[in-house]
Write a structure and sequence with these properties.
With about 140 residues, the chain is an all-alpha fold. It has two domains: about 60 residues, no CATH class; about 50 residues, no CATH class. About 55% of the residues lie in helices and about 0% in strands. Helix 2 runs antiparallel to helix 3 and helix 6 crosses helix 7. The N and C termini lie far apart (about 65 Å).
Amino acid sequence: MPPKAHLNPHLTFEEIKRLYRQAQDTTEARRWHLIHLISQRWTIKQAAQVVGLNYDYAKEIVRRYNREGPSAIQNRSQKRQPSPRSLLTPEQQQELRHILKSPPPEGGEWSGPKVARWIAQKTGRSVWPQRGWDYLKRLKS
């Protein structure tokens, strides 16, 4: 039988169990489930099979957890939760809604990059063209 995996004592068994049960992100929930099973003296191979993860990937999760602690379990993919704070205040959104009714200063049609430049001028922040497109679709009536 393969040796049991070692987990550094970053968290207690109860803390791991709580984090596993409270995880909102499915990727994080699976990772916490893996760590939870391993904390119960399961092998990585057994836990990976139950959780439905590739064995090598499961080993990497355990290595990262041992090295970095609980922050290693976070989902680092590009799929992030939207920021709760809007780029524009309600007043700026109303101003943009009004401006979108007329042609842009540089001519042509409004586009994501043009709206992003307008937002950048208003806020002094760097704005990706996709965010401009999001506002264009949301506010243009």
